[in-house]
Amino acid sequence: CRPLDKEGVAGPASVFVNLICDRLETLDPGFVIPINIRVTDANDNAPVFINAPYVLNISEVTVVGTRVLQGVDAIDNDQQGPFSTVKYSVLPGPHSDFFEFENELEGTLVLKKPLDYESLKTFDVHIRAQDHGEPPRSNDTILTVHVIDADDQNPRFLDDRYTAVLPDPPKKGSALHVKPRDIKAFDQDIGINAPIYYTFNEVGPDYSLFRLNRLTASVTLAKDVSDGELPHPAILVVRATQQDNPDRYALATLTVTKSKDKAIKFLHSVFHIKASEALLPGAMVGTLTNNRPQDNFRYFVSDQNILKTFSLNTKGEITLKKKLDYEEMPEYTFKVFATDGVTNDSTTVNISVVDVNEWEPRFRYPHYEFFVAGAYEPSEPLGRIEAADGDKRDMLTLELRGANASLFSITHDGELRLKGGVMRNGVKGTAHLTVVATDSGHPPKQASVPVTVHFNDPGDMASIISSRGNGGVLLAGLGAILLILVFVVALLAAYIWKVKKNSQTSPSPPGGSLSSKKDPLSPKKVTTNPMFENSSGATRGPPAGSTFSASALGGVPTAEGKTRSPKVHPAPLPPPLWPSSASASSRVKKLSWGDDKTDTDSLDNVNNVEQGPSKVLESSNLTVYF
């Protein structure tokens, strides 16, 4: 049994058969039924690359966007249609960012990123061909890329500076012993490695004393050197040039001295020094070390203004002359020259000022107050909080704190807004919060400022606060107030009960419960108040001739006090005049703490009230003591 295959590879692409039908047990002729089986295509074939894997040789100076490979091709054996349509892509990988397909339906690769032979000489890229079936079928292959070196680098000396001492005796043809090694340069384009030739870069009296080998760079004396010649070190500039491209060259210096002493040399070509701006004048910033630390030398700087800030002694020690300020000058760069009178050397000094968090954030105003009238949109800012920091590089972060801080938000530039969840339509009230500014220094410093926001309706502010989740706090506060009120009422009830009990158990004073001011026209008998009686029945009231009025706090001021309390209200206006005896009622109710007795009991108090004269002075007054 063979499988069906539309392509006719694994099996037949179509089947044609005849079905013969014969009727049994009869002489009737049979008939033939033709059957034609048509095979439909299925996505059973994956794309196949032609001539894979691929190899690409490309120059490092190839311009980005150049078509570098057009031979990528894959064939899908499925029938013409989506099952055989192939698209190409570069699979993600370490070097997949160098290439891309110009069109996914065509196998043309385009350079996407510059190449560099010195950093990457060869690498692989994975490519995929995939049809449009459901599900799709795909096939992968590898593109190996070889980067070709181009002449894009200058030659380079093994050392930038060389030194040598004249031989003794300095005769013609004598070779110089060069340090730290023989002069040599190489082409940095390693793939090309062009040959190098050497020459002196300049001409002059010093150059005429020496001869430089064009191929080996060895230096010999061109003539005998007398004692009067070369009184100072000779600095010769040596040039290394590519033979195939004169525009590619490099320079180095050769210092030749007559002295056999060791030539001065800094240990570093560039000294990087960090100095905190908190250093005090006189502090040592750093030392320019050399190969002769026991000797003293003369030092010179390229910029004389540097000496206003720093000083340099004969040991190469740099000290501070005035305080540094990062905001004013974050970095100092200058060259230093040293000489012992015969040899010399130079170096570059870079002093970086380390910033110190000196300043706290500062707000423009000590207090911010904003007023909101009418309807308010959350997109509109209530106002702006302005803050700054004296440290140049510090960034400020603004934060809201306080009981009402959750109602508001603040942007990085200080715009204060009401949060969008709170809708306001002509409301009033007052909200208090604090804005805290924190800088990014080390250690960070903070400053705060109070902010008050006024709205229209005081009652609506409470609704906003409750809408923001403070209802529990308000309920707790109201509950606490209610407990305090219950406690106060209980104390008052206990006090009243105790007073009533004492008034019922102790004998009633003969004077009744009403006390009036002394009237020259009235009898001498005065009605006393039970509150001024002690346990022995003696009156505790004020001395005779003294007049008091009720206090706003419910107490009676002492007789000795000369100054009235500001919370004590004056006595009320005089009460109406007592009527004459003819019109006076025979039933007078006693005013006392025991006023809850029946009217029958109060009839006994009639005898305690004396009949006054028919005419009473208008100046008479009634004072009730509680």
Q: What is the secondary structure topology, with strand pairs?
A:
Layout: E1 14-21, E2 31-38, E3 48-49, E4 54-59, E5 67-69, E6 74-75, E7 86-90, E8 99-101, E9 109-111, E10 122-131, E11 138-148, E12 155-157, E13 161-165, E14 177-179, E15 185-187, E16 196-200, E17 210-212, E18 219-221, E19 234-242, E20 249-257, E21 270-276, E22 284-287, E23 298-301, E24 310-312, E25 317-320, E26 331-339, E27 344-354, E28 362-363, E29 368-371, E30 375-376, E31 383-384, E32 387-388, E33 396-401, E34 408-410, E35 415-418, E36 424-425, E37 428-439, E38 446-456, H1 458-505, E39 515-516, H2 599-602, E40 622-623
Parallel strand pairs: 4-11, 13-20, 21-27, 29-38
Antiparallel strand pairs: 1-2, 3-6, 5-9, 7-10, 8-9, 10-11, 12-15, 13-14, 16-19, 17-18, 19-20, 22-25, 23-26, 24-25, 26-27, 28-32, 30-36, 31-35, 33-37, 34-35, 37-38, 39-40
Write a short abstract of this structure.
This protein is mainly beta and 626 residues long. It is 8% helix and 32% strand.
Strand order of the largest sheet: 14-13-20-19-16
| Unreliable parts | 423-427, 458-469, 508-626
Q: What structural category arises from helix and sheet content?
A: mainly beta
Give the number of domains: 6
Largest sheet: 5 strands, mixed
Computed over alpha carbons, the radius of gyration is 56 Å
Helix content: under 10%
Task: Assign an overall shape.
Answer: flat
**How many H/I helices?**
2
Averaged pLDDT: 76
Beta-strand percentage?
25-35%
| Count of individual beta strands | 40
Query: Gap between N and C termini, in Å?
Result: 124 Å
Pfam family, one: Cadherin
GO molecular function: calcium ion binding
Membrane topology: Single-pass membrane protein
Subcellular location: Membrane
